[in-house]
Amino acid sequence: MVLRTFGISIVVTVVSLVVAFLYGGPQALLLCLILGIFEVSLSFDNAVINATVLRRMSEFWQKIFLTIGIVIAVFGMRLVFPLVIVWLASGLGPIAALDLALNPPADDAAYFPDGSPSYETLITDAHPQIAAFGGMFLLMLFLGFILEEKEITWLSWIERPLARIGKLDQLDVVIAAGLLVLTAVFIAPADETSTVMIAGALGMITYIAVNGLGELFNVAEEDESTGRSGPTELAKATGKAGFFLFLYLEVLDASFSFDGVIGAFAITSDPIIIALGLGFIGAMFVRSLTVYLVRQGTLSEYVYLEHGAHWAIGALALILLYSIGTHVNEVFTGLIGVVLIVAALVTSVIRNKRGADTGGDLDPDDRAAVNA
User: Which residues on adjacent β-strands are paired with residue 346?
Assistant: First the structure.
């Protein structure tokens, strides 16, 4: 099962490392490997969330996501997206943007001798709007989950009160909009305030639009076990429902990849190495991990994993917003998600063991004791 699921990813990894070595020697190979590990560590929560959505899709749309979706993830977000940013920021054409990326200034300087910015500098300068869009999209996703009433809770001491106040209509929008204003006024550089507001608003609009389209085509169906609804809680979506769920997953994957793409420039600015490491190695392993979680029924067995992943999303969203004004170490960004998911996994194992010791699932009082 493991070999069948991860076999293609392993082959792609080997080929990517060989290509990296032929492209830039041992240093390029090492950078490619580091980027692959970096992407997987950052995106583990992405795989968990993807799995919660993918298991509800029809087999046809699962295949579409795992084929066409991987092309979009690898080439679209990890290679084309940075070039588009440079294209729009510099006014250069696509070919000129690629040439700029492949020919950086001497000694990796931020600017060329004529004063024009390097490829890496243009990407870094675009960070506020990228982080604002991605941060607000992920924040809306987190709030949509945490403010819904659930039968099973993980961090009950905070999840249950949040679920109670979540009954207020549009509270998620109010909280997100308030945090966006605070970010733009107190965190963003003075000359980026309006840019952050616009990009953040677009992130919120994108989430609301995709979620609304899902509901319009009955993508969101109430889950009997949790009483929640949303794009992650549908039942074998097909047709238009499957299409909008696929669209939701692609936007979600893009939002998750923002921090990885930006963080990669702390390691290298070479677009070929970034595409090989983040895209071919990292994105492929995230897809394989997603498939593994679905086929093994891991999310049903370890019920707190979804909770841990959403808390990791909330942390990532806040980190993205904070990083608009202050650089955040990429290692910290990756570790906080891993720690939350591992904690959710461990507590799920404890829950299952206590359930087995009592001869079945936990009753509400025992579950409350475990959750506390």
Answer: none
